[in-house]
Amino acid sequence: MNRAIRDDDVTAFRRDGAAPLRGLVSPGDVEALRAAVDELMARPSPRAKVASAAGDPGLFFEDFCNWGEVDAFRRFVLDGSLAPVAAALMGAREVRFHHDHVLVKEGGTVTPTPWHQDQPYYDIDGAMTVSFWIPLDPVGRESTLEFLAGSHLGPWLMPRSFASREAKWFPDGSLGDPPDIEADRGRYPILGWAVEPGDAVAFHMLTLHAAAGSATRRRVFSARFIGEDVRHAPRPWATSPEFPGLAETLPAGAPLDHPLFPVVWRE
To answer: Is the pLDDT of residue 2 over 70?
Structure first.
């Protein structure tokens, strides 16, 4: 880690639900993650998907939960320096790694990432959550991840499939939909930052966020962590990502004490 977490980072994260952490990731880790992401794109896992719309001249590639097979990912999330930062941001006494997520928008991709919260797609309940969005290429303000400040303090909102906007998770009508932020962006406290390799953006799993397409290549490695108040919440549908067999081995309401979610830091 190039620098320690600061009090103002923690304040911004807890107030806004998102905060930029400049120079958090070492150049060596950036290079290792770049090589691993390129290798994963050449040989994707069975969990990979293309999220770009039909006819998009670019490509939006995603892959999930590869830390068990990709050495560079495993070393970074288990032995790297993110865990104590996650603990400070969440105010946690214990930190578990939840999952990794690779997101690549090739240059010329026009498909946006719509406004959404992450946690409703998962099988967890609890407030101690943090994701690190780690760019492996320079990302300009126009194509960076954007956040609705303070939205992590509000209600859960309906998760929908990005392309078809189907309610494939919670039954349609059981949760409210996100506001139409793009219709009147000036009404909303939108945050976003141009970032460089070595920077990271930390955000709560309930913070509304979105991103435009990208004129240049945008490789991102995302690492997601949870604190001790998070509990297993099995769903009657396939979550994104899926954890096959977990519902049969971990009861509802149980801490995520499971090899899939290793402890990476304790007070």
So the answer is: no
pTM score over 0.85: yes
The contacts of residue 130 (CB under 8 Å, 6+ apart) are 13, 86, 89, 90, 202, 203, 204, 205, 224, 225
Token digits of residue 163: 């392309």
125, β-bridge pairs? 231
Give the separation between CA 195 and CA 142, rounded to whole angstroms: 11
Tokens of 228: 């001790």
Domains and CATH numbers, the chain: 7-260 (2.60.120.620)
pLDDT tens sequence across 100-116 = 999 999 999 999 999 99
If you count them, how many residues does the chain have? 267
- Alpha-carbon dihedral sign for residues 55, 59, 64, 68: positive
Q: Is 170 exposed, middle or buried (0-12, 13-18, 19+ CB in 10 A)?
A: middle
Helix (H, G, I), strand (E, B) or coil at 97: strand
